[in-house]
Design goal:
Number of domains: 2
Largest sheet: 3 strands, mixed
Shape: elongated
Strand content: 5-15%
Order of helices and strands: EEHHEHHHHH
CATH architecture of the largest domain: Orthogonal Bundle
Strand order of the largest sheet: 2-1-3
Helix content: 40-55%
CATH topology of the largest domain: Arc Repressor Mutant, subunit A
CATH class of the largest domain: Mainly Alpha
Length: 125
């Protein structure tokens, strides 16, 4: 599988979005590096950081190698960026309950701040 990268124009360098371990193995093991001619296939994406985070999650979930703590931290970062539960669910391949559970892991107060809550009950006068 190709390594997925993002070209950072300001730094004039490629940032690995997915495939860091494949790249590290090639650098560490001479026999693999020689077999591959010192090169690995690369796909370059042009997405904002939120899209790159979503891509990483989708790749990890497809391989079955996602981590709950990492996922909850990424969800927290996306919430801090102002992205909605719907956006997060759609782009990370999660249902609404999963997004809420992951938000709860990282702390309710900060992640649910400034959100409208259900009006399913009212205070009696």
């Amino acid at each position: 599988m190709p390594i997925v990268c993002y070209y950072d124009k300001d730094a004039d360098m490629y940032e690995i979005v997915d495939g860091f371990h494949r790249y590290s193995i090639m650098l560490k093991y001479k026999n693999i590096r020689e077999r591959e001619g010192g090169r690995l296939p690369v796909s370059v994406i042009d997405k904002p950081i939120s899209g790159r985070m979503a891509s990483t999650i989708r790749h990890n979930r497809a391989r079955g190698s996602h981590n709950v703590d990492l996922m909850s931290n990424i969800v927290a970062e996306l919430v801090k960026m102002g992205l909605s539960n719907d956006w997060i669910g759609k782009h990370l391949g999660m249902d609404a309950d999963e997004v809420i559970r992951l938000k709860q892991i990282t702390g309710l107060a900060a992640l649910f701040k400034d959100r409208e809550f259900s009006k399913s009950w009212t205070k009696k006068k």
